[in-house]
Amino acid sequence: MMYRLPQMDDEAILREYVQEHYDHGEEHIHGSCRLASTPYREWVGKVHRCAREGEGVSGRSLVLLSFDGDRLIGMLSVRYELPRDLSESIGDIGYGVRPTERRKGYATAMLRHALDICRGKGKKSVIVGCYKDNEASAGTIRKCGGEFIYESDNFTKGRPSLYFRIDL
After folding, report:
1. CA angle 61, 80, 157 (to 5 degrees)
2. Is the model's pTM score more than 0.70?
3. Residue 26 in contact with residue 32, Cβ under 8 Å?
4. pLDDT value of position 59
5. Which residues, 6+ apart, have CB-to-CB distance to 118 below 8 Å?
6. What is the pLDDT of residues 144-161, one digit of tens each?
7. DSSP code of 70?
8. pLDDT digits (tens, 9 = 90+) for 11-53
9. Of all residues in the chain, what percent carry a pLDDT higher than 90?
10. What angle do CA 151, 28, 152 make, to 5 degrees?
11. Can you list the pairs that 143-151 forms with residues at least 24 positions away whose Cβ atoms lie under 8 Å?
């Protein structure tokens, strides 16, 4: 797998990625930092600004495109400077895999890459969450060392999420 920040010339492949989610009845693009609801140029600028300087209380973070060869497989969000309260609400890591590429091990590879980034940034543990009804994501988190710590609807009110701690 190859990971990199999005560029201006990635717009077409990202629009196709978003459309595939919509075609599968999904409205939220996980790990994308609001890609679908932000003008593209503005979104790329924000992603690069967050990587360089950070954004307010959230600190620096990365939104990475995840490729297998030339194919965009998913998106990975690594929020390695979050204060504890935000970490416990939105999680330190978010990821999403395009619907046609799920159940192929990509989410595990992406999460492991994010854990390596967090280790490199000096973090000792991270919190990763998923919706309670997303058994595949919960399994991925557990496979990467996640230990269940609590259930809450912090991320999306009215939709329970499970939160896991992964010691690094």
Report:
1. 85
2. yes
3. no
4. 94
5. 78, 80, 92, 93, 126, 168
6. 999 999 999 866 677 899
7. T
8. 999 999 999 999 999 988 998 899 999 999 999 999 999 999 9
9. 87
10. 10
11. 143/108, 144/108, 144/111, 144/112, 144/115, 145/115
Q: What is the DSSP string of 99-138?
A: GGGTTSSHHHHHHHHHHHHHHHTT-SEEEEEEETT-HHHH
Beta strand spans in the chain (E): 2-4, 62-68, 71-78, 93-97, 125-131, 147-156, 159-167
Q: Which of 132, 7, 112, 123 is nearest to 65 (CA)?
A: 7
Q: Does domain 2-167 have CATH number 3.40.630.30?
A: yes
Kindly give, in sequence order, each residue whose CB lies less than 8 Å from that of residue 73, ignoring residues fewer than 6 positions away: 1, 66, 67, 97, 98, 101, 106, 110
Could you tell me which of 21, 12, 146 has the C-alpha nearest to residue 74? 21
Reference 96, options 26, 156, 45, 10; nearest CA is: 26
Grouping H, G, I as helix, E, B as strand and the rest as coil, residue 29 is: coil
Length of the chain: 168
Structure tokens at 19: 């459309």
Task: Report the chain's terminal Cα–Cα distance, integer Å.
Answer: 21
Tell the residue number behind the tokens 């992964």, with chain if given. 166
